[in-house]
Specification:
With about 475 residues, this protein is an alpha/beta fold. It contains 16 helices and 24 strands. The longest helix has 16 residues, at about 155-170. Residues about 465-468 have low confidence and may be disordered.
Length: about 475
């Protein structure tokens, strides 16, 4: 028996490869699937099953393509309805894979069809669970993402409580836990950086598995502090239910080099968004006017999904040399399949063709501190709610990047804003969006709050309310 966790850090997502006696199961595959096929072929094995733990909201699964290319059966949990062929497992149904068995445990709560897969080894021992978004390390899945359901998030949270206590907590403490996500995913609140654990460890450390916890307490705690889901979640979940264009088609139509002339013409006639995925330092020095920055080196795909509201938006790319295929691939992972091509030769070719560029003023934290002391500085803190609440600059306006499209009326084109995040990535994203909307008096703070804290500017710290 062989188990491999195939973890994609930029999505905080874990897919799994299980092999026994020449047969393979893939759990929650990524959009691009050739790597799974190659791995099986190299081991002289055949992919038999594709297990989906639920209709994923934060990425587009590769299950449809993988089934077409291998003949494998797609398995979902009870009640799953799709427009393509699947096997909808019954609760406790078992599937033979070589010398091992995979048992479907219906665990609704995160979504109605959510299913945990229990791996039983050659000796009949419970070896591991692949828990999807039902159980994370340190947390559980958010219960507010059900599609077209009349159930409330409280109803789903109550179901999750029952699922955990009836299906997962009775398992032996040494059963390994393989979750679908780790820290950085928006599918939970406080996910661990670890990506593999055990049932026993989770019983000791995960707040949601406290033995003395009532259902009412669980519902209250699991729902407390959940931010609204990113806008692309429902769209990705629907793609996972209804299918999508093949990844090969998306890559063929999106990874096309374009001359500056063709690039500009397409931007004008196709109403395409110009997406600059280079490092922020390069975007700051020079970029195509009205282009949006979201760098490949950061949480690229989730930020695209959160901030580009039309999943069918035509996109033109400005990429570092040799990174066009990676950019198209990572866009496809969250369902943004309408890439039209990339600027051949990069920004240098754009400039050589006589086109204008724009820049963004960026200053050090020390220079920023000097300006603040002189007075009259408008500060935008674009970090998340929790980051801002824990510590922020006095007089800073909180303007979370996550909700920038909804809160544009909170800023004025007549003012000059100094923008910071934690380290410098998100502030440039925010500045690029504001610039594209006609806000031109913007200054980025290099190094973000991490650098600002090293100055002597006063901050406001979070003070825990007294329990006395």
């Amino acid at each position: 028996m062989k188990i491999e966790q195939l973890y994609t850090s930029c999505l905080a997502q874990g897919a799994y490869y299980i092999e026994s006696n020449g047969e393979v199961a893939i759990i929650d595959p990524l959009r691009e699937t050739q790597a799974y096929i190659d791995k099986a072929n190299s081991n002289n094995a055949k992919i038999k099953y594709i297990f989906e733990t639920h209709f994923h909201a934060d990425f587009v699964s590769g299950h449809v393509d993988l089934a077409k290319n291998t003949g494998a059966t797609i398995i979902y949990g009870p009640g799953a309805e799709t427009t393509y062929e699947i096997h909808s497992a019954k609760d406790n149904e078992e599937f033979k894979l070589g010398n091992v068995t995979i048992k479907a445990l219906h665990t609704p709560g995160h979504t109605l069809e959510s299913t945990t897969y229990l791996l039983i080894d050659e000796n009949g021992k419970h070896h591991a669970i692949f828990s999807g978004d039902t159980l994370f390390l340190g947390d559980v899945g958010r219960p507010d993402l059900a599609i077209k359901s009349d159930l409330t998030k409280e109803d789903l949270a109550a179901m999750l409580y029952d699922s955990l206590r009836e299906k997962i907590m009775p398992l032996a403490d040494d059963v390994i836990v393989y979750p679908a996500h780790g820290a950085g995913s928006a599918c939970g609140k406080n996910l661990s950086k670890e990506t593999v654990g055990t049932i026993g460890d989770q019983k000791k450390t995960n707040y949601a598995l406290r033995a003395d916890m009532t259902k009412a307490e669980f519902v209250k705690e699991v729902l407390d502090g959940i931010a609204p889901p990113p806008q692309y979640f429902a769209k990705n979940a629907m793609l996972n239910k209804t299918g999508y264009d093949t990844f090969e088609t998306v890559l063929k139509t999106g990874n096309i080099p374009l001359s500056p002339e063709d690039f500009e013409a397409m931007a004008n006639h196709e109403e395409a968004l110009v997406l600059d995925v280079r490092p922020e330092s390069e975007y700051i020095k020079g970029h195509i006017p009205n282009s949006i920055f979201i760098g490949l080196h950061g949480g690229f795909a989730p930020w695209v999904g959160a901030l580009i509201t039309d999943i069918k938006q035509p996109i033109l790319l400005v990429v570092p040399e040799g990174k066009s295929e990676e950019a198209v691939t990572r866009l496809s992972r969250v369902g943004y399949d309408n890439t039209l091509g990339y600027l051949e030769g990069g920004i240098e070719s754009w400039i050589s063709a006589g086109n204008d560029i724009d820049t963004l003023e960026s200053i050090s934290a020390e220079e920023f501190a000097d300006r603040v002391k002189q007075g009259g500085v408008n500060i935008l803190d674009v970090r998340k709610d929790g980051e801002y609440s824990s510590m922020h600059l006095e007089d800073a306006q909180h303007f979370a990047l996550d909700f920038i499209n909804e809160n544009m009326n909170e800023v004025s084109k007549e003012k000059t804003y100094h923008i910071h995040c934690a380290g410098g990535y998100r502030s440039v994203i925010a500045a690029s969006i504001l610039k594209a909307r006609g806000f031109h008096n913007l200054v980025d703070i290099a190094g973000g709050f991490g650098a600002i804290k090293k100055t002597d500017l006063p901050t406001t710290d979070f003070v825990c309310p007294s329990t006395l």
